[in-house]
Amino acid sequence: MKDCNCGYCMRGELLDAFGIYICELSVSTLILFKEQSHPGRCIVAYKDHVSELVNLTDEERNAYFADVARAAKAIHAAFHPDKVNYGAYGDTGCHLHFHLVPKYKDEYEWGGVFAMNPGQRKLTDAEYAEMIEKIKANL
To answer: Looking at residue 90, which CATH number applies to its domain?
Structure first.
């Protein structure tokens, strides 16, 4: 099931507004969040356009959380954060996804809740490509 107004479903310009496709995981898509105030921040979006975890079977949910864990391990290996925060929002987007937000002591927002889209740091295409390769190398 897809929603033609959803960046996670349709990709293209809708996804390009906030993220860069990295790869497919077992039941989800891994996306690099363009705003990189937290180096390595990614999104793990479920493969189908479902709104809630409760819309998944136990098997689907377990596979999705295995993808989230796999992505988090890659982020830890690639960027060595002190902590990864996990955020599941989507009041208006309604496509199940988790933000994986690496947090670093003595840096931006340590000890507080991460801002959804702080607009502090965008990267060059080459810097995005380098981040993506680091993540892929650790999946």
So the answer is: 3.30.428.10
